[in-house]
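Late entry, evening session. Most of the bench is empty. Finally got around to the prediction I had been postponing all week. Sequence below, unchanged from the version circulated by S.P.
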Amino acid sequence: MAGNVPSRKKPIFPVGQELRTYLERYGRYRELPAHYDDLLHYSQSFPLLDRNGNDTLWESVYFSERDMAELNNALTRIYALLKTDGDVTVMDHLQVARIDFCTYGNSKPFRIRIINRLNDNYDHFYLKQADASRIYGLELEDLLSPNRFNFLVEGNTMVEEHIAGIPGDEFIRHHLEVSQFDQIRISKEFVKFNERCFVRLLGDMRSYNYVVDITPDIEGNQYRIRAIDFDQQSYEGRKNFYFPQYFKENNDLIFMGIRHMNPRTVEQYQMEERSLIAGRVKKSREQVQELFLVMTRDKISTPDKVSKLTEELAAHHNSDRFYRCTNMGQVVLTHLDLLLEKDFRQSIVFE
């Protein structure tokens, strides 16, 4: 759907005290040795090109020798916090190899490449502007999806681990010419990914906002689609914005699914995914309830978008429960609760 794009650039929503308290309780809020603003003081930048010489829309940034020495120490310590809960014994052989800056994303992230000097292996992590709606998206990903995700917050700074995988647009261009068996598995995974996004209202899943993880199996491969952009967690007011199937960038996956699946099969995979989400809610009920207690009192969208989405979801589900929602946190909770009640006779409404 060509018009299924964000209405305008989403604002950054501040991290309030209730959200901070929640993050502190679950080990997400930590004192960081470097912050987002520290990386804005670079002295030079150059366009970063890919292996084929194409502009990646990232810039490699450079700092003075003194600033770089301080940043190297601080950023390797952050990497230790992210990966080893602060065990600094791993820092001696780590070094910052490169810092890249992206100006087109909502959070304007810095990507840090950390290299292990003992074997030249490298990893990445990101420093971004802290955004409450993105934090809710990351927490819902960690709690409701099959994917675990590690991130840290302090003040106006978020630190996120790198999600490995083939970018969705590259996967669609180069990895769909596989066996029919694998095409069926890809189609199944896209249906399940589509369902996960809609259930928790994660929007804007165009092909460059997710990656595909391929795992060799006994026969063929297993595929997992993972979101990498959580800026559009329950912000927009259009229902179709939360269905990856409606983005034209995903058309090749849609058409492949049409060739290999009938409506009954699609419904089965949707029900499987809802069942898995229900199981995750049951296992983490206390934390999920705590998250929604905070989220339903926070502001992560605008009144006009809340009103529009409540109208569209009420019509979609033929339910007037959405009309009682006054903010996006309540919309997400009502949506998740309605689906769990309808299909699995359970609820996460606070008792």
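Two things to note before I forget:
The two ends are 41 Å apart (CA to CA).
The first helix runs from residue 17 to 25.
Will write this up properly tomorrow.
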